[in-house]
Design goal:
The structure is a homodimer. Helices cover about 30% and strands about 35% of the residues of chain A. Chain A is globular, with a radius of gyration of 16 Å. By secondary structure, chain A is α/β, with parallel strands linked by helices. In chain A, a hairpin with a 3-residue loop joins β1 and β2. Chains A and B meet through β3, α2, α3 and β5 of A and β3, α2, α3 and β5 of B.
Chain lengths: ~200, ~200
C-alpha cells in the first residue's frame, strides 16, 4: 500500500538490526485519518469473506482494528493481556511470548464474544514472529470459530511469522511488507494483492 | 446522549454496588459504529476549542479517542501503562492509582508527541474517581500544553471524579451520566449540553 510505505519511509525509525519504530503514527501517537485508509484497504481485501467479527490484541491493534470494523460494520473484540490469570472462568486464554520484551503474557477473550458461528478477521499492527496471531488462532480454535484471514499493517517478512502462517494456509494480507533493513534504509517486498488487482 | 443511554440500559450489567460492565460494546468487544457516533458527538461539543491533539490512556480509551480523532483530524496519543518505569528518558510520566484493581501504574507519553503549543482534548471511556484524567492532566502540565476539555463516554457521577474536575474549572462533557444504581436499575443524570443546545 503505497501511502503506508511512504509514511513508514518518512516517519519510521530503524533501531538496531530489526526494530522499526512507528510510534508517531501507529502505536503511541496514532494518525486517525491514516487508520481510516488502512481500514478501507483491509475491507477491500477481505470484503468477500462474510466476516462477522474482527479480533485483535490490546493495545496497538485496537486503532487499525476499529478502523476496519467501521468498514465491515461488525464488532471488534480486543483480547486482554495479563501477566497471569488466576480466574479463567468463561474466558478463552492463550499464552503469547513477546520476543521484544522477552516475557510471556496470557491473552483472554470472554466466551460471550466469540462462538462457532463467527467468521473472524484478525487484525494487528505488526507481524514479526507471529506469536500474537498464533495466540488468537488458538483462541479462535477453542471457540470453534472460523479464521477467514489475517490483516497486518506492517509485516517484517524476514522474521518467521509470515512463513509460519503461509505454511498453515492462512490468508494473510500485509499492507506493508518489509523485506530487509539495508544500510539504514527500508527495503519493501512485493505486494501480491496490488500486483493482481 | 440518548442512543448511548439506551445502549447502556440494553447491554450494561451492574455488578455489586457501583460497577457497570459495558464490555459488550465499549471496552472488550467494541461497536465501531457506536464509536463513530460518540466521536461525532465529542466533535459537536468541542469543535470550537481549536484542539490540536487528543490524549487518552491505553487500552479502553483508544477506540473512542480514535473515533473522535477522525472528526477533529488531529493526532491521537495514548499514554502507555507500566507497572514501574526504570527508564524515563524523554518521557512525561505520572502515577495513576486504580481503585478497581487496587494497583498503581505509571503512565507515560513521549516528549515527542506533546508540547507547549498543543491544545488538548482528553478522552476516556469512564470517569469514576478521576485518577486517569488527573494523571493525564499532570502530563499535560509537565509539557506546558493547554487542557481544553475532557470528553467522557460514561460518567459515574456518584464517585468523586466529576466533582474534582468541576472544582478545577475543567470543561467536562460526559455523553452518559449515571447518577445512581437503584434496585438494579440505572438512573441517568441530566445532560446540560443537550438541554442547552
Amino acid at each position: 500500500m503505497k501511502i503506508l510505505e511512504e509514511r513508514i519511509e518518512k516517519d519510521g525509525r530503524i533501531l538496531g538490526t530489526n526494530v522499526l519504530k512507528v510510534d508517531s503514527f501507529l502505536n503511541h501517537q496514532v494518525d486517525p485519518d491514516l487508520m481510516m485508509q488502512l481500514g478501507e484497504e483491509f475491507y477491500r481485501r477481505f470484503k468477500d469473506q462474510n466476516i462477522t467479527k474482527i479480533l485483535t490484541v490490546e493495545s496497538s491493534g485496537i486503532a487499525p482494528a476499529v478502523a476496519a470494523g467501521l468498514q465491515f460494520h461488525v464488532p471488534v473484540v480486543f483480547a486482554r493481556k495479563h501477566k497471569s490469570l488466576t480466574l479463567k472462568d468463561n474466558l478463552y486464554t492463550s499464552t503469547v511470548y513477546s520476543y521484544t520484551k522477552q516475557t510471556s503474557n496470557e491473552i483472554a477473550i470472554s466466551h460471550r464474544f466469540l462462538n462457532d458461528n463467527d467468521r473472524v478477521l484478525v487484525i494487528d499492527d505488526f507481524l514479526a514472529n507471529g506469536q500474537a496471531v498464533e495466540g488468537l488462532m488458538d483462541i479462535i480454535n477453542q471457540a470453534g470459530a472460523t479464521l477467514c484471514g489475517v490483516g497486518i499493517v506492517i509485516e517484517k517478512s524476514f522474521q518467521k511469522g509470515r512463513q509460519l502462517l503461509d505454511e498453515r494456509g492462512v490468508h494473510v494480507e500485509s499492507l506493508a511488507r518489509i523485506k530487509a533493513f539495508e544500510d539504514g534504509k527500508i527495503v519493501f517486498g512485493p505486494d501480491e494483492y496490488e500486483q493482481n488487482h
